[in-house]
Amino acid sequence: QGYLSNITSKNTDLNALSEVYEEEALVQAAEVQEKINNGSAGRLAGMVITIKDVYCHNGHTLQSASKILDGFKSQFTATPIQRLLDEDAIIIGRNNCDEFAMGSSNENSVYGPVKNAVGKNKVPGGSSGGSAVAVQAEMCLVSIGSDTGGSVRQPASFCGVIGFKPTYGRISRHGLTAYASSFDCVGVLAHSVEDTALVLEIAAGPDEYDHTVSTTNVPAYSKAPEWAEKFSVVSFENINSHEAIDSAVKQSVDRVFDKIETLGNRIHKVDFTYLNYVLPTYYILTTAEASANLSRFDGVKYGYRTENAKDLDSMYRKTRTEGFGEEVVKRILLGTYVLSEGFYDAYYTKAQKVRRLIRDEMKSLLENNDFIIMPTAPTPAFDLNSHDRNPLEMYLEDIFTVQASLAGLPCISIPNGTDENGLPIGIQVICNSFEEEKLLSFSKYLK
Ligand code: GLN
C-alpha cells in the first residue's frame, strides 16, 4: 500500500513505470501474508520489486519501450523473474526504459522520457532509468534492470542508488529481450548491498534454457561479510584524471582513493592501454549484434504491423520503418554496415580482436590486484534534451561503463556523495570473473 501510494503521487510526473499492477500486487501481497502466517513464505516474502520493460512476464505486456511491440504479451516468464516470484517477491509494475535498452538518458521511449526524482529537469540516466527512479522514489524496494554497456550502473549513479552487473553468464538471459547477446546481463538496482546480494543469490545459476549460463557454484552471496583484510586496488591514471570528468566526480573518486591509502592499502597506478578504443569497440560489436537480434521484429511474429502494406516486402519495410524509433534505426543501420561484406573484417573482426585485448589486460591486472575503482560516469545527471543533437556526446557518457561489459566482468556502482547542487555521484568497483562475493563484501566496506 505504501509503494502504491508513492506511485500514485509521483509516477505521473516521473514516468518511471509504464504499467502498474495494482490489483495483482495486492492479491499477491495477501497471499504472501497468508504464507508468512503459516510459516511457508519464501526468502523474498514481501520484497516489492519492479521489472524493466525488457523481461517476459507471462500474460503481461512486454514492449521494450517500442512501438514495434505494440500489443505484445509474454507467453512465459523470464527465468530470473520466475526465480524471484518463486521466493515470493511481489511485482508492482513494469519500468519505462530506453527503446530496446539503447540509450544513456531514458529519453528514447515510446512512453516518453523518465525524470530523475532529484528534480531540476535532469535525466535519470539509461537505459534502466525507470528502474533507477522507481527505487530512488520508493515506488519499490528493488528493481530488475538490464546492463549491456552500463544501463544499470549509470542510472544508479545518476539517481543515488546501487547498480549491480554480475559476471556475464552468472544469471540466465532466458526471457530477456536480446540487445547484444554477448554483453547482455541481468542487473539489480537497490538501496542496500544486502538486498542486492540476496536477489543475485536467488536469480543466479544454471538454466536449461540458456546455455551461456555458467555452472560455477552460486555462493551464499547474502552471507558475504563486510571486507576486513588489506587489499590492492588498481587506479587507471588516464581514466581517473580524464578530461571529460566533472570536478565533483573527480573529488568523489579522490576521496575514495585517499581513504584507501590512509588505511594502508596498496594502490597500483597504471594507464589503461586501450582507453581510446573502448567506445568504438563497444558500439561496433553491440550494433552488429543488435542488427541481427532485431531482425525478428518483422510484423509477422510480434506486436505491431503496418496498415499500409501492398505486398510482403512493403509490409516488412513499412512495419520496421514505422515501428522502430530513431536511435534503434541508427543502430540497425550501423550494425548492418559493420557486418556487410567488404567491411566485416575491417570493423567487426577487428573489434573482436580489440575486445580480447581489453579483456586480457583487465583480467591480468585483476590476477595481481583485488579491485579496479573508477567513476561510473564522467558527470552527474545532465539536463533533459541536452544531448539530443550529437549522438557522440551521448555515447561518451558510457566511456567508463562499457569497459567491464567488454571484459564480461562483475561491477557495481555505489553512491559516493553529491555535487554542489545535490546531484548524486556513483563510483564503480570491478572484480575478476565470478568474484561477486568479494565485490559485495568490499561494497559493504566502502558504503
Ligand atoms: N548506453 C549504452 C547503450 O546505449 C548501454 C545500454 C545498455 O547497457 N543497455 O548501448
Automatic annotation (TrEMBL):
<dbReference type="InterPro" id="IPR000120">
    <property type="entry name" value="Amidase"/>
</dbReference>
<feature type="active site" description="Charge relay system">
    <location>
        <position position="127"/>
    </location>
</feature>
<feature type="active site" description="Acyl-ester intermediate">
    <location>
        <position position="151"/>
    </location>
</feature>
<keyword id="KW-0067">ATP-binding</keyword>
<dbReference type="GO" id="GO:0005524">
    <property type="term" value="F:ATP binding"/>
</dbReference>
<dbReference type="InterPro" id="IPR036928">
    <property type="entry name" value="AS_sf"/>
</dbReference>
<dbReference type="InterPro" id="IPR004412">
    <property type="entry name" value="GatA"/>
</dbReference>
<dbReference type="GO" id="GO:0030956">
    <property type="term" value="C:glutamyl-tRNA(Gln) amidotransferase complex"/>
</dbReference>
<feature type="active site" description="Charge relay system">
    <location>
        <position position="52"/>
    </location>
</feature>
<keyword id="KW-0436">Ligase</keyword>
<comment type="function">
    <text>Allows the formation of correctly charged Gln-tRNA(Gln) through the transamidation of misacylated Glu-tRNA(Gln) in organisms which lack glutaminyl-tRNA synthetase. The reaction takes place in the presence of glutamine and ATP through an activated gamma-phospho-Glu-tRNA(Gln).</text>
</comment>
<feature type="domain" description="Amidase">
    <location>
        <begin position="1"/>
        <end position="440"/>
    </location>
</feature>
<protein>
    <recommendedName>
        <fullName>Glutamyl-tRNA(Gln) amidotransferase subunit A</fullName>
        <ecNumber>6.3.5.7</ecNumber>
    </recommendedName>
</protein>
<comment type="subunit">
    <text>Heterotrimer of A, B and C subunits.</text>
</comment>
<dbReference type="GO" id="GO:0016740">
    <property type="term" value="F:transferase activity"/>
</dbReference>
<dbReference type="Pfam" id="PF01425">
    <property type="entry name" value="Amidase"/>
</dbReference>
<dbReference type="GO" id="GO:0050567">
    <property type="term" value="F:glutaminyl-tRNA synthase (glutamine-hydrolyzing) activity"/>
</dbReference>
<dbReference type="GO" id="GO:0006412">
    <property type="term" value="P:translation"/>
</dbReference>
<keyword id="KW-0547">Nucleotide-binding</keyword>
<keyword id="KW-0808">Transferase</keyword>
<keyword id="KW-0648">Protein biosynthesis</keyword>
<dbReference type="InterPro" id="IPR023631">
    <property type="entry name" value="Amidase_dom"/>
</dbReference>
<comment type="similarity">
    <text>Belongs to the amidase family. GatA subfamily.</text>
</comment>
